[in-house]
Amino acid sequence: MIGPDELQEGIISKLKADATLVAYLTGLGVPDEIREVSWQAKDFKYPCVRVDIGLCSPYGGDKCELNQSEILFEVQAFSVEASSRQCGHLIGLTIKALFGKSIQATNWHSQWIRLMPFLGPRQIGENVWQSGAPFRMLTHE
User: Fold this and answer.
1) Distance (Å, rounded) from C-alpha 32 to C-alpha 15?
2) pTM for this one?
3) DSSP per-residue string spanning the chain
4) How many domains does one find in the chain?
5) Could you read off the pLDDT of 99-130 as tens digits, one per residue?
6) What whole-number distance in Å separates Cα of residue 89 and Cα of residue 32?
7) The domain containing residue 69 runs over which residues?
8) Which domain CATH number covers 105?
9) Were 49 and a residue from 34, 56, 102, 123 both cysteine, which residue would form a disulfide, CB within 3.0 to 4.6 Å?
């Protein structure tokens, strides 16, 4: 079964390969702010995108095979603005970067990434906005 660190790396690499998303963040002065949700190596800069690996389970119908997995993960967008518009735009870019796509990593690959129901931006502090897009994918080693 694929480890969460490998999954996270593959998803982040896919997001960082999206020219539109990276150009948008670069234009806002934060080109490197696509990271794992638990990033602690330096200050949290806004706006940003964070990847959170959720449930990972073996997949294979009647026969559970360890080389196939079902992965649930969420991509979160954060912004600090008077309006939620920037956060909404950022989560929209991440959805376009992943929905219906697949990932080809060194030791694994995915089938099409599926978007699950999600809510738009919500205020989590004074002028701080968060939005999350949950995804589901099937992976193979």
Assistant:
1) 11
2) 0.92
3) ---HHHHHHHHHHHHHT-HHHHHHHHHTT-TT-EEETT--SS---SSEEEEEEEEEEEE-TTS-EEEEEEEEEEEEEEEESSSSHHHHHHHHHHHHHHTT---B-SS-EE---EEPP----EEEETTEEEEEEEEEEEEE-
4) 1
5) 999 999 988 999 999 999 998 999 999 999 99
6) 18
7) 4-140
8) 3.30.2000.30
9) 34
Q: At 4, which amino acid appears? A: P
What gap in Å lies between CA 95 and CA 93, rounded to an integer?
5
Where does residue 1 rank: exposed (0-12), middle (13-18), buried (19+ CB within 10 A)? middle
* Confidence band for 65, pLDDT divided at 50, 70 and 90: low
Strand 109-110 relative to strand 114-115, pairing: unpaired
